Amino acid sequence: MSKWTVEAVAQIAQGTLIGNSDLEVQGCIIDSRQAQGGEMFFALPGEQVDGHDYIEAAWKNGAVLVVADEARFQRSGKTPRTPEGKALLLVKSVFIALQELAKAWRLELGVKVVGVTGSNGKTTTKDMIAAVLSRRFRVYRNKENHNNELGLPLTVLNAPLGTEILVLEMGMRGLGEIKALCDIAQPDIGVITNIGTTHLELLLTQERIAQAKWELIEALPMDGIAILNAEDLLSVEKAKNDPHSTLFYGLEGAFAQPHLAGVQLRPWGALGTSFDVCFHDEKTTANLPLPGKHNVLDALAALAVGTAFDVPLAEGCGGLGELELSKMRLEIRSGVFGTTLINDVYNANPVSMQASLQVLKERAGENKTVAILGEMYELGTSAESGHREVGRTLAELGVSVLISVGKLAEEIAQGARLAGYSEDQIEVTATREQAIIKARDLLAQFGPGTWVLIKGSRGMKMEEITMHLERLGI
């Protein structure tokens, strides 16, 4: 196997080629500034930025081939001059060409593919799976959460020669979307972390969410393996009528007996968790640099994938100990006035919010705790109840103070009140700026040793609160 030539790309994409057909290409970009040399630049039209305006820049920065919409140049009657040593491929749809090329490259690589989806923890699980499998294989994965109809094919096309396993996170907002991603990725193993209420606004019922997630399992070949959470009722119920081999992982085994189980969880280091892993007659200890049962469950999913690829359990646990996570997930940072910040602002839903609150209390011990919580999106008709459920958990855990951010997040405060939380423990703010002022005053009062959790949905941009609480002088 070797790099593709421009001519080979043109044949797969069924486009009109202008320029040198013998040039070799590998990798792809959609931002002309990211060119390093030898890539394909896909000139995707966007709502605010049109890639066709950056064709010359892409060539100048090192891209070899530009893939562009032929209709764009038919309308203008002009075709850009192709520099020497460069090529232009005109296609009916840049987006479709990207996906078709990703399908072809996945087959060209001859890799095994692990697909990962779920309502919570899929990005963390994807990172953990890569860490486990990297002990024995050359692994490539999505950057951050590049998990949609654009990000996934870009990930596949950027997988380098020699890749043995692709670990691909798959997101969805509706029925048919994971199926479309699977048409590109053709997964051999499917992991569903859980089936919760994220995207309820779009899919209306949890059963429809389950149906959408299950598209990953339905896409597996008959010898494929479904790796499922034994603590998740809908996953266990769906598995009963599915023909694929199933490997369950879990802690208590609430709804199915785990094939791979985690027991005896205990704190490890500043924010880590140590636990024992049991698989058949084998037992070993894992030291995970993350807190909380939810992260242990994700780690068990990763170890289960490892067993499917014959990675010894001890080696897989070693991989978890060297885990590199995507940014903005349970990051520990030094805050103002000697405080400790938990920056967990990547995204939020009721389950992940409650899990992070438990981590806050677990790690703070007897110290003061402050939860700065923003709105949670895409909960549909469960928006009010979901926010109130978080408030109820916060009150039951005994968090010292709640600072809510945004109109929807006022329901977190209301849920806490209904659970007996005192009014003088609640600060309701409408904006991040107001939350920063309240937090600054509060942390000055509480002083050193205080632990602070900052969390909210991605659109809330809660990282700006973290940034300001780090920047303030002591």
Describe the structure.
By secondary structure, this protein is an alpha/beta fold. The protein has helices spanning about 5-15, 55-60, 70-75, 95-110, 120-135, 150-160, 175-185, 200-205, 205-220, 235-240, 295-310, 315-320, 350-365, 385-395, 410-420, 430-445, 465-470; strands at about 5, 15-20, 25, 30, 40, 65-70, 85-90, 110-115, 140, 165-170, 190, 225-230, 245-250, 260-270, 270-280, 280-290, 330-335, 340-345, 370-375, 400-405, 425-430, 450-455. It folds into 3 domains: about 5-95, MurE/MurF, N-terminal domain (Udp-n-acetylmuramoylalanyl-d-glutamate--2,6- Diaminopimelate Ligase, Chain: A, domain 1), CATH 3.40.1390.10; about 110-320, 3-Layer(aba) Sandwich (UDP-N-acetylmuramoyl-L-alanine:D-glutamate ligase); about 330-470, Alpha-Beta Complex (Protein-Tyrosine Phosphatase, Chain A). The chain has 17 helices and 22 strands. It is globular. It starts with a strand and ends with a helix. The relative contact order is 0.09.
